[in-house]
Amino acid sequence: MTSYPTAPLSIDTIDGLTWIRGDWIENEADRRCEEVWSGPSAGTLMGMFRWISANEVSFFEFMAIRLSEGEVELHAKHFHPTLVAWEERHRYQGFVLSELTEQRAVFAATPLPDDEEETDGGWLIYEKAGKDELVVRLIQSTGEEKLTFHFTRVA
Questions:
Q1: Are 65 and 14 in contact (CB under 8 A)?
Q2: Which CATH number fits domain 15-153: 1.10.260.40, 1.10.10.10, 1.10.510.10, 2.40.128.20?
Q3: Are the beta carbons of 66 and 86 closer than 8 angstroms?
Q4: pLDDT tens per residue across span 29-50
Q5: pTM attached to this predicted model
């Protein structure tokens, strides 16, 4: 089993994540996935994701990476094609930056601060695989890969 760090990384800026910026597309036989990230502004990066299967939108995801009290958080919220949220109004999927290099960012899953439920754990990993290649992996707490995306930069 592969293990990744879970402790929050303490940093002063999100500028080390600027390599994630851009428009990214993955075209597979059964899906087309698009992810778009803004550059840093006001201590945040903003991201959007769209999953298309059989020429229909399956879902959207809105993401924000923000610096908060020396820690970098990634929040994600999912939406049906009609923009009805999957999660309840005050809920989202939360992650905290636990590792950062020039080519990799590891985010460990976290529960909401006021949540009585524990998170299932796991990690969201962004890896720059080449000048115009981005690999995004969702890893379960068991170490198994749940999803992997191989994106190519288009803009």
A1: yes
A2: 2.40.128.20
A3: no
A4: 999 999 999 999 999 999 999 9
A5: 0.91
